[in-house]
Design a protein that fits this description.
CATH topology of the largest domain: Tetracycline Repressor, domain 2
Helix content: over 70%
CATH architecture of the largest domain: Orthogonal Bundle
Shape: globular
Length: 188
């Protein structure tokens, strides 16, 4: 039986996403990833070269999916933040992976190209909308993007203790709070 190389690669990426989300880059183990993917460690090194490169491939895939499924609309940043919130609700590992990335690569010495390209394109889109008079100029484009991104992930980045305080809020109310907060940034 001939194995499908692309199917193996995708299983490795899926298993790695779960392992990295649960344990971070340093805590992840290639043997667990290989076992979960019904593969072997040699395949990880064959396809990706290293555990760090595997993490980058996982992160690149998440960035690509987010860009494809949640494109920025600089003329409607409140709804963009709401759609990002929706994505984080549907894919909770995204925020966990981003958190591990920030913790384990705090200096950004080796930035992931897909993230740099994504953020650069978003800042340019916001700047263009501001120049066209379609968007408030209260904040510089990069600052505004940072605020929108941070607000969209608010609920998934809370400590468990704080989450207990707002547990009574429905998903719809949490989403609306994010949309309203971004709208307030733009209208004041």
């Amino acid at each position: 039986m001939i194995r499908d190389a692309e199917a193996t690669r995708q299983r490795l990426l899926d298993a790695a996403a779960e392992e990295f989300a649960a344990r971070g880059i340093a805590g992840a183990r290639v043997d667990r990833i290989a076992e979960a993917a019904q593969s072997n460690k040699a395949q990880i090194y064959h396809y990706f070269g290293s555990k760090d490169a595997l993490f980058e491939a996982v992160f690149d895939r998440i960035v690509e999916a987010t860009l494809r499924d949640t494109p920025i609309d600089p003329t409607d940043l409140p709804e963009y933040a709401g759609r990002l919130f929706d994505r984080y609700q549907q894919h909770p590992q995204v925020q966990r992976l981003a958190t591990w990335y920030r913790l384990e690569r705090p200096d950004g010495d080796d930035p992931i190209a897909a993230i740099v390209a994504s953020n650069t394109a978003k800042v340019k889109a916001i700047a263009a909308a501001q120049r066209a008079g379609l968007l408030s100029t209260r904040f510089e484009p990069a600052v505004l993007l940072a605020l929108v991104l941070h607000l969209s992930g608010t609920w998934s980045s809370l400590t468990p203790e704080y989450t207990g305080l707002v547990k009574r809020l429905s998903v719809a109310k949490r989403r609306q709070a994010i949309v309203d907060a971004v709208d307030a940034l733009l209208t004041r």
